[in-house]
Design brief:
Layout: H1 39-49, E1 59-62, E2 70-75, E3 80-85, H2 98-108, E4 118-122, E5 132-136, H3 146-150, H4 154-173, H5 190-204, H6 213-222, E6 231-233, E7 242-244, E8 250-253, E9 260-262, H7 265-280, H8 297-308, H9 315-338, H10 350-364
Antiparallel strand pairs: 1-2, 2-3, 3-5, 4-5, 6-9, 7-8
Helix pairs in contact: 4-8, 5-9, 6-9, 7-8, 7-9, 9-10
């Protein structure tokens, strides 16, 4: 297995953690006008590979928001499905590997970890111009907005926060070998390779001096913790990457493009970082965790430690590492904005966030802030 399995998406086009954006499908568009999708060719392929699945006219809508893989809602009047494909334009195969996503969903679907059922992998480019896959449309709501989430009431919000951790515990309890994913990653030297890859991405994105970022990287390298037993890692685990139904059950964990076999505490560190940074920088990251009743970070961590049996004494390193990764992602977006490669509202302010995220990463390591 190549090193790319450790961090799909680290190189050129930075598909790492998505920034906030709407998650509702856009308006219906005819096939030829829908970016990255030819409905006629898709219909032909589905009818051939999954005869009888479609019974009416096939229509599609693009899920707006997110800056990585493109996701479409497909409907035929009686059923709904979801199609995923890489972004338009230049694509690195290791950054947007549809076969990897399809494989991990197939391995997880028979387990207790909730994921959509994968239905069809299309590895050639004849249908969408890139490999893609079809999966079921799982029921549920993505909670990004604070007011929307708060509308559930404090008790339900609190319970859902704990469910979020419990689902992560269930994921990390799986034996990758038993579910056919023994070769899905290389856990030996995982943290060192991860840090090295993000360091290379930082070097490729440099256009200015960012106070403290080199110090953060150096201290992370000098204090690499000893990883626990490897597990299947999601890579971007957070509240707005799960679907929740009307009975407050998590019906699906979404967006597996960063998944691999490695250090499970990287998932917990990333989750803690998202919660803490949302509280410090309201409006920058998905803010649903700000709803009254959402568990405090200490409770989330204690819940994970109790459920998993893992020692979380070095969690500060993992939170610092997650902060470093997000700072690099944001710096890359800032760099692309300065070159005119990224357009749209809000991108001009991304660069202002990087130093604050670096300071938080240093603080997580209990270092002097800059």
């Amino acid at each position: 297995m190549s090193d790319a399995s450790d961090a799909p998406g680290v190189p050129d086009d930075l598909p790492g953690p998505d920034l906030p954006g709407p998650d509702l499908p856009g308006p219906d568009l005819p096939g030829p006008d829908l970016p990255g999708l030819d409905l006629a060719r898709l219909r032909e392929r589905i009818d051939r590979e999954l005869p009888g699945l479609l019974t009416g006219e096939l229509r599609a809508r693009l899920f707006e928001g997110g800056r990585s893989n493109l996701t479409y809602l497909l409907e035929d009047g009686s059923g709904r499905w979801v199609l995923r494909r890489p972004p338009l334009g230049h694509v690195l195969a290791t950054a947007h590997d549809m076969a990897r996503e399809f494989r991990v969903l197939g391995a997880l679907h028979p387990t207790g970890v909730p994921v959509p059922e994968p239905l069809l992998l299309i590895e050639d480019e004849a249908v969408t111009g890139a490999p893609c896959y079809l999966m079921e449309c799982a029921p549920g709501t993505v909670y990004r907005d604070t007011e929307q989430f708060a509308g559930l009431g404090e008790e339900r919000v609190h319970r859902l926060g704990l469910h979020l951790v419990d689902t992560l515990v269930e994921l990390h309890a799986l034996d990758p070998q038993r579910i056919g994913l023994a070769d899905f990653g290389r856990p030996e030297g995982f943290l060192e390779r991860q840090l090295g890859r993000w360091g290379k991405q930082l070097a490729a994105s440099r256009s200015r001096e960012v106070a403290g970022i080199d110090e953060l990287q150096a201290h992370l390298a000098a204090a690499l913790p000893l990883s626990p037993a490897p597990a299947l890692v999601h890579g971007d685990y957070r509240l707005d990457n799960v679907l929740v139904d009307a009975e407050d059950r998590i019906t699906a964990v979404l967006d597996w493009e960063m998944s691999t076999v490695g250090d499970p505490l990287t998932d917990l560190g990333l989750l803690v970082m998202y919660v803490e940074l949302a509280r410090r920088f309201d409006g920058v990251l998905p803010g649903a965790v700000l709803a009254p009743g959402f568990p405090a970070t200490d409770e989330l961590v204690a819940r994970y430690a109790e459920g998993s049996g893992r020692d979380v004494g070095t969690l500060g390193w993992y939170v610092g590492f997650a902060s470093f990764k997000l700072a690099v992602v944001l710096e890359g977006i800032h760099y692309r904005w300065t070159t005119g490669a990224t357009v749209g509202p809000g991108f001009d302010r991304v660069g202002e966030l990087v130093p604050a995220f670096v300071r938080f990463g240093l603080a997580s390591l209990k270092l002097k802030e800059h």
